[in-house]
Amino acid sequence: MSLANKVARRFSAEFGEAPAFIALAPGRVNLIGEHTDYNDGFVFPLAIDRAAWIALRPRADRCVRVISLDMAEDQSFDLSDLPRPDAPRWIDYIIGVAWALQRGGYRLTGWEGVLAGDVPIGSGLSSSAALELAAARAFYCVSGFAWDAAQMARVGRAAENEWLGIQTGIMDQMISAAGVAGRALLIDCRSLQTTPAPLPAATSIVILDTGTRRGLVDSAYNERRRQCEAAARRFGIAALRDIDLATFTRRADELEPLIRRRARHVISENERTLQARDAMLAGDAEALGKLMVASHTSLRDDFEVSSPALDAIVNCATADPSCYGARMTGAGFGGCAVALARIEDAEDFARRVGAEYEATTGNKPALYVTHASAGTRSIKADSIASLC
Ligand code: ADP
Ligand code: MG
Questions:
Q1: pTM of the predicted model, to two decimals?
Q2: Quick one: average pLDDT of 15-21?
Q3: Ligand nearest to the CA of 3
Q4: pLDDT digit string (tens) for 162-191?
Q5: Which ligand 1 atom lies nearest to the CA of residue 69?
Q6: What is the per-residue pLDDT across 278-291, written as a single tens digit (0 to 9) for each?
Q7: CA-CA distance, 78 to 268, in Å (whole number)?
Q8: Which residues place a Cβ less than 5 A from the ion ligand 2?
Q9: Helix pair angle (90-103, 127-143), 10° resolution
């Protein structure tokens, strides 16, 4: 049963009628441009065919009630008196979105609904951004304000950064909000300008989940951010986005060796990301694949956010004749890699890499071919019937 059916059926069982709306927001995978977003740089993600779904109807009062099928919980809150989070729970992401919207002057109506998702949680495909944007869309459905993808991405990010206290860049929310079917999106994380680009013909995107998760991600992430900020300060620029590779190479001695390597990753990754746009526009899968491999090497050696499991799965993928290139994706230390593979062989490629990786490491991976999907959207009651 599709997730649309699942949330709609549960909604009907719970509330005695069909939902008025179904809102959904996808997870994402980043093709290239890693750890560049918080340096005001470029990223190149695509929205995937896995999403958070909410079936809902408006309420006459200012209450929001959500039944989470994945967490098997029923939670409510009052829009006039938002409860502050201590240890973030799933409902706090929705409360945070309400907080950020209300802070932005949006007048919100209450709603009730059923939530379920198939973006794996904590694997680097951004189930949290999917939840935030699905929640923002739910508020949009019942409150009747104008939908602006970049604005809603900022709302999602504010919920995560300021309400929950979890530091993230803008990439996850922006691609979930603004994804385009069949396209990857070059995002300028300073201006939030997006440029869709088609994936090279006859290629597939394969997600390679190592099956490993590392707890130290948050502290390492914050440390990398500080190191990047230190490098920018040293160069007297607002962000590492503002220096090109040639100038950096000339001035590299001004930085101590560790900070220099961190900065070199970000600055070279920005250039690779722009080159990836050229490769995609030229339909050049070979060139795109090589840039992905160079990105992984830089993340592994200069930024030091890879892991033995990520290196192993990337090595298994790139050794396969059907692979153009592969790299770790997301914050790192565990979670997923992404590969560009020949379309005619993508499913077999995924099977071969999974078997090889499992034999080498003993870890249980999950591999899936994915498709670039549209961003956050919703369906009204009259079209829901066709889904159920
Ligand atoms: P990710 O890398 O997947 O974004 P995070 O740790 O940032 O991992 O966010 C995961 C959190 O988001 C979960 O612990 C949960 O609180 C919330 N979440 C994500 N998807 C769902 C869902 N389908 N239902 C309920 N909560 C969800
Ligand atoms: Mg997240």
A1: 0.95
A2: 97
A3: 1
A4: 999 998 889 999 999 999 999 999 999 999
A5: 24
A6: 999 999 999 999 99
A7: 47
A8: 126, 128
A9: 50
